[in-house]
Specification:
CATH topology of the largest domain: Rossmann fold
Shape: elongated
Helix content: 55-70%
Strand content: 5-15%
Order of helices and strands: HHHHHEHEHHEHEHHEH
Structural class: alpha/beta
CATH class of the largest domain: Alpha Beta
Number of domains: 2
CATH architecture of the largest domain: 3-Layer(aba) Sandwich
Number of strands: 5
Length: about 250
């Protein structure tokens, strides 16, 4: 039959969204009341939605976000110090396209990582590439890449990510061997990619945590020069949830 050949051709062209939509049309008699143009338009729309959903699924998989968080679920309790106006601005992800950085600071348990992942998820929804990584793990990967001879390849891969999320930034002083690598990563992303950093270390202490004054100046100049700062306040969210459950 002609329709069977049509299905085979659609599958051959990897038009899976159209295959599903055409099957639904054939199962719904009311579809025949529509014109050819209307039915074909519905098939095209279905393919667009299918591909967008698949791309989002792939982007989220590659992002490796720690939390399944989304901006719609952010708790705007006054005690947290989160401004709806500022989050609304970040929602569009224009800051990523403009290669700005978001710096989320606050005490442990205030939800820094969660909000960072929510912003990462929003970026994926906008079709942007994201990678979440704990800062300590990034340093481990850098050291291992030097041993394996893949250091340049690692830097190149990181530079292609549109939003790099570094969780628990500078919790420990930076080892002298890692400072130059950190500068290279930051330099590669300056005005070409966005950074999101979460940390309980106040920004005024970052210089001391990096150590070398010259390299610290160079690194922080590139990070802070084009940055949006979010300071979370209040008690630990873990403590609050525990008390609510008891």
């Amino acid at each position: 039959m002609l329709i069977e050949q049509t299905f085979e051709d659609l599958r051959a062209f990897n038009l899976k969204g159209m295959v599903e939509a055409l099957s639904r049309q054939l199962e719904q008699p009311k579809s025949y009341d529509l014109s050819f143009e209307e039915r074909f338009s519905l098939l095209v729309d279905a393919e667009k939605i299918y591909r967008k959903d698949k791309r989002l699924e792939k982007l989220l998989q590659l992002a490796k976000l720690r939390h399944k968080a989304c901006m719609e679920d952010i708790d705007y309790a006054p005690s947290r110090g989160i401004k709806k106006e500022q989050m609304a601005t970040l929602h569009s992800c224009q800051w990523i396209k403009d290669s700005l950085n978001v710096l989320i600071t606050g005490a442990t348990g205030t939800g820094k990582s969660w909000i960072g992942c929510a912003l990462g998820q929003q970026a994926c929804r906008q079709g942007l590439s994201v990678l979440y990584m704990r800062f300590s793990l990034l340093l481990e990967k850098i050291r291992l890449s030097r041993v394996e001879g893949t250091y340049t390849k690692l830097l190149k891969a990181l530079s292609k990510i549109e939003l790099l999320i570094l969780d628990d930034w500078l919790l420990e002083p930076v080892d002298p061997k890692d400072r130059h690598s950190l500068l290279e990563i930051v330099e590669d992303r300056y005005e070409r990619g966005a950074l999101l950093m979460t940390t309980q270390i106040p920004i005024q202490n970052w210089h001391e945590m990096i150590g070398d004054p010259t390299l610290a100046d160079a690194i922080l100049d590139r990070i802070l020069n084009k940055s949006i700062k979010l300071e979370l306040k209040g008690e630990s969210m873990r403590k609050t949830k525990k008390e609510s459950a008891s």
